[in-house]
Amino acid sequence: MFSSSLKPLVAIAVLFSATAGLIGCGGGSGTDDADVGPPPVRPVTGAEGRWAGRSSTGYDVMLTVLDSGENWGIYTRGPVIHGAFHGTSVAVGGQLRGSAALVDYERDGRVSTSLYSGSYIPQRQLEAGFVFDVFTAGYVPSFGQAATTAAVAGNYLGRVGGWPTPLALTINADGGLISTQPTPACLVRGSIGPRAGGRGVYDLRASFTGDGCPLPHGTGVAGIGVLDGGRLSLVSVAPSLVDFFVFQGQR
Questions:
Q1: Are 128 and 134 in contact (CB under 8 A)?
Q2: What is the pTM of this model?
Q3: Torsion 47-233-222-6 (CA) sign
Q4: Which of 33, 174, 180, 237 has its CA 20 to 30 A from that of 125?
């Protein structure tokens, strides 16, 4: 899906992901029952945070670095999701280094891996890249505002990476998540709730039933969700490390 001229972004996006411990530590690691209230707040450290910026190849990139060093991100142009990434990094003394797994929807959902390096100023700026593609981003202050189940509850309609059909999701007051029309051939069911640590990040778990889904029947994924006003972004992956579920929708 990426042309050869865009391959560097694969590396840059990959940049923030890793193939190790995808499900075990970080996104989706909570219990099946969503937390209703915000968890206790603790200090932000290192490169932790939510970062938004643009790559030198013209993609808008949203990156979330968790306190565990786990990273989740999406890159887009306009409303179209072109790819997503997940992995881990180590941040010490303003320097960032890690490895990543990237799903590229311009190449029919191909997944690749790569290394990356960069630098950061805590809660201010992050820059990283590979070869000649660079991602420069600013810190998103809302990361420091504790997520709540009440805030994310509602109905969302949006796009799924690599899938042409719009997807409607409903999140209930208890954090239960379920798909609704206009996708009767697919049932998406799961849960979303505040991630421990008191940040603006949600843990996500979901499963897919039916032959009209963006992922194969019976697939389960785990990952994170972030809320920007009325826009919900979900990034998750199955234990196979091959099947990504990436969603952006508006309430």
A1: yes
A2: 0.83
A3: negative
A4: 237
Residue 19 has pLDDT above 80, yes or no: no
Rounded distance, CA 161 to CA 175, Å? 23
Tell me whether domains 4-29+45-143 and 144-250 share a fold. Answer: no
- 85 in Cβ contact with 216 (< 8 Å): no
| Domain edges within the chain | 4-29+45-143, 144-250
What CATH class has 144-250? mainly beta
* pLDDT over 50 (residue 163): yes
d(CA 126, CA 188): 35
At residue 185, the 3 state secondary structure works out as: coil
Query: Using CA atoms, how far apart are residues 91 and 213, in angstroms rounded to an integer?
Result: 37
Q: Are 110 and 1 in contact (CB under 8 A)?
A: yes
CA 33, 37, 42, 45 torsion: positive or negative? positive
Burial (CB count within 10 angstroms: exposed 0-12, middle 13-18, buried 19+), residue 207: middle
Cα within 13 Å of Cα(119), Cβ side: 3
DSSP state of 239: T
Dihedrals φ, ψ of 119, to 5°?
Answer: -140, 165
Report pLDDT digits (tens) over 36-69.
555 566 788 899 999 999 999 999 999 999 999 9
Is residue 177 within 8 A of residue 32, CB to CB? The reply is no
